[in-house]
Design a protein that fits this description.
single chain; 180 residues; mainly alpha; Hypothetical protein af1432
């Protein structure tokens, strides 16, 4: 059997890590395993947004591990290296903070982030937009409003490498808003 290329190996390793880290979590629809979300974010990043960078794809797979599991930065650093660990940390909201302060700090962090972080966040928004049909109409409207706010804030500091992806996700948001 031929050896796996290093870049493919990193993505497979991140897939297994995310599956283990999220193994007991369920999505908001109360029936879908949570891990389907990071898997879809990775697929959106690769297939819809055209990203092939293995570290960026690994970040997409791991983007919620610090925020939503017992995984910490050091776990990711030891397993995936400094780029992936840093990017996942930048995509992590500090749940110890009050919600308004947490959101403001998160947007400030995103504004300072590299294009790989912007692309992962855009893929995350896209997946949640696709998945918004499975939540209540009230929650959907709130999510659409938060997504618009996030995109507007990201647009202020968007890295040029993420502009095309931003436009794709903005169009998707507009389509979802038109559906109500």
């Amino acid at each position: 059997m031929p050896a796996l290329p290093d870049q493919f190996s990193l993505v497979l390793q991140a897939t297994a890590f995310a599956a283990r880290a999220h193994r007991h979590q369920i999505r908001k629809d109360a029936r879908t395993p949570y891990v389907s979300h990071p898997f879809r974010v990775c697929m959106i990043l690769r297939e819809l947004l055209g990203v092939a960078d293995p570290e960026c794809l690994a970040t997409a797979l791991l983007h919620d591990t610090i925020e939503d599991t017992t995984t910490d930065y050091d776990d990711l650093l030891a397993t995936f290296g400094p780029n992936v660990a840093r990017w996942v940390a930048l995509l992590t909201k500090d749940k110890r903070m009050e919600e308004d302060a947490r959101e403001e700090a998160y947007f400030a962090t995103l504004a300072q982030s590299e294009w790989q972080v912007h692309l992962c966040k855009l893929a995350d928004i896209a997946d949640n937009l696709y998945d918004s049909d499975s939540i209540s109409p009230l929650d959907r409207r709130r999510y659409l409003m938060r997504s618009r706010q996030c995109l507007l804030r990201m647009n202020e500091s968007l890295q040029p490498e993420a502009r095309h992806a931003f436009n794709i996700v903005l169009r998707l948001l507009e389509e979802r808003e038109a559906l109500g």
